[in-house]
Amino acid sequence: MRKTFLIAIFFCLSCVDEKNNPNISLNQDKEISEIGLPVNISVEVSDLGKIFTLNEVMWSDNGKWLKDSSTVILRSSSIDTLTDKIKMNYEITFWDTGRFAIPPLNVQINFPDSTEVTKFNTDSSTVFIGTILDSTTTSIVEDKPFKKIDFPFQKLRVFALFLLFGLIIYALNILGKRSSKKLNNRNFFNINPKKNALKKSNEIEYNNLSSEKLSIEVSKILKDYFQNNYYIISFEMTSNELKEYFKDEELNELLNKLDLVKFSKQELSKFEKKEIMDLLKKVIRKLL
What we know:
Strand order of the largest sheet: 1-3-6-5
Number of helices: 8
Distance between the termini: 149 Å
């Protein structure tokens, strides 16, 4: 009889179904705070039993209220799964004044004896954020006065000023020595090629020059005129190339006479020298 009684008690105890009553709670450390000071929120889901699976934790608005970092910053968060409960801690900082609504936090948990997800939601809460200077502030601490910093290199500063003053005097002295007449008479490159060529041709004393030297001087004046007036590389062109380029009879005649003196070493008479000079001036004066 005693044995039967013990067996009955064992079966009764084994049929008892342990009922858990999970619940969620939220604890907010302050409802009034200041800009830049953290607000701590603690959420706890208790009485879960020893076997459970945490699926998801998210704010009801999908965290949209945390996306504007200029207003709200989630400084830190932690989730601890203990023996039969879950603890979640959040530290939030607000950077704007006014009343803010903290949305509900959603927690989804799976239990081994159920195929459905069990959802837990906290209530929404509010917090009022004020400025750091409130109505209780009676005085404002003055800023520290500006500290005077002496220039560490007084002697160097005086030397630099003296050097600068000397450079200014030197520059003014150089400008004063420059003559306006020299500036006005300055010869610029290629300002009047025809005038310069005629001037050089008039300066040649052809009667006192040998035929070969006269040929060299005339050829130089002619090619220099072509280069400055027509922008061609006349010093690198042959007589035939110049003839083909300009196609002028008087130029052809002048080049033929110069080539004859150059290659045949022929000595010219005064009349022939004068004829070459006249052809040179004629070629320069007219437009080819």
